[in-house]
Write the structure tokens for this entry.
Amino acid sequence: MSEEKKDLLLEIRDGVSALPFHQFLGLKADCYDTKNRSIHFDMRDEFVGNNHFKILHGGLIATILDTEGGFVLVLDGAWRAETGSPTNPVLIKGGTIDLRIDYLRPGKGKHFVATGAILRRGNKVAVVRTELRNELDELIAVGTCTYLVG
Amino acid sequence: MSEEKKDLLLEIRDGVSALPFHQFLGLKADCYDTKNRSIHFDMRDEFVGNNHFKILHGGLIATILDTEGGFVLVLDGAWRAETGSPTNPVLIKGGTIDLRIDYLRPGKGKHFVATGAILRRGNKVAVVRTELRNELDELIAVGTCTYLVG
Amino acid sequence: MSEEKKDLLLEIRDGVSALPFHQFLGLKADCYDTKNRSIHFDMRDEFVGNNHFKILHGGLIATILDTEGGFVLVLDGAWRAETGSPTNPVLIKGGTIDLRIDYLRPGKGKHFVATGAILRRGNKVAVVRTELRNELDELIAVGTCTYLVG
Amino acid sequence: MSEEKKDLLLEIRDGVSALPFHQFLGLKADCYDTKNRSIHFDMRDEFVGNNHFKILHGGLIATILDTEGGFVLVLDGAWRAETGSPTNPVLIKGGTIDLRIDYLRPGKGKHFVATGAILRRGNKVAVVRTELRNELDELIAVGTCTYLVG
């Protein structure tokens, strides 16, 4: 990877972590290399969506999976682009078309990591599959996220 | 509506507004009567998911629609139950099975209201359709939410 | 409606009914006017997906709802176009991006009608909500269908 | 695998292939062992959903993916059951709650195979992910199918 490319990926990573709603929730983006691109965060009392079970709110799970899907896609776009910047068209103009989340296990844990993989990368539409796991590597939820690109 | 029933609905409403993640986001539940059951909230700088357009984060939209779907369902369960309480099985044991959100317009606005209607109410599974509108009554997003019940 | 426009709508209707898989299943398209655009068909022994209950196969329900969604969209495109023909870009180049079906009641009946309404009509993506009802007007299933357009 | 178990799996396989809609379409179920459980079929002129591109109708793709999801689940149920038969509760009473299909590539090919894996297997609800590939092993579509069980 060229230094220029590496800098671009890190700039995107920081841009994603710095988005207002992500800062509010404490979501952090990470990209060690082109394969490892994740959104992670720590459990907080404010994230509870069910007082009885003390588990993550389902909407927060959807938030993380949508965020990870977009992150994966923007990194991929930057990686493919000859030149580029975080003011990349994908980052600015794209948007989520639809989002589908399957909740597989209660959202219990102290630390959560979302990962994703691109299913489809077209000129107009991209689809990313995402997963949320806790610190025990238990699969909490999966998402399929469709984005408008270009 | 009996006074007892009315009290139950109000107790559920307050229980939903008081959930940690709802308090954190400032989501308010409202139920004027059995037909008007909504989740509403005001725009805040922290809710921005796209710095260029200053629009709601898609995950927040998913959060509100999931919350509204659950709220409609719990009210419906309480309404049907001969007796009941906010420690209703639905409220405690149920959970979202899957959630599908279609983003129709950018989430612009100052105040947002989510409403919903039950599509299916079975013994095991319920499906609720939800909508998010801004203060101009523009339809921002729709959701289809499937819940495990009883 | 101009005569030319009327002819175009009827040509699209016949084109949809004539598609090989639609002929194979006996699906008929109908458009009396711009508001009434449906796909309808009669129950047949071959359509059974559960020998015990003698109900429609879920995949057939998905087929009808997808077909209705595309039909509504192509009619809408033709209606908006100044000029146009069934060799309309929408009809040829578009395609289903994703399809989500909620099964609400067993598919029992003698005659079924699918109807639909456009939720979003963008330059790149359109979303159509569809419904399937039997001859007793019971709601069997609903669909949300996302299409690539233009 | 006991002979009794093997016979049960084969009986389920034959029961699935024999369902009226499956026979009508020529869908064949196969289970060589507990890991290889597929639905496969050959392209036919009647399956075309787009006259210009001569590709599979999207509804047929949904049909195969829904069928595969149910097949995987029934086999799994039979496998886990101490005793059992194709008149298994799952096979008779269960049903698809919802189905979501993502169309990734045009449905071109001569022979198609659907495979699936269980994401969630609860007492009330199960979720299966399915894939459709052509004879070149190209991924045509993926599905997420939610079923009522027990």
Strands of chain B lie at 28-31, 37-42, 48-50, 55-56, 95-103, 111-121, 125-134, 139-148. The longest strand of chain B covers residues 111-121.
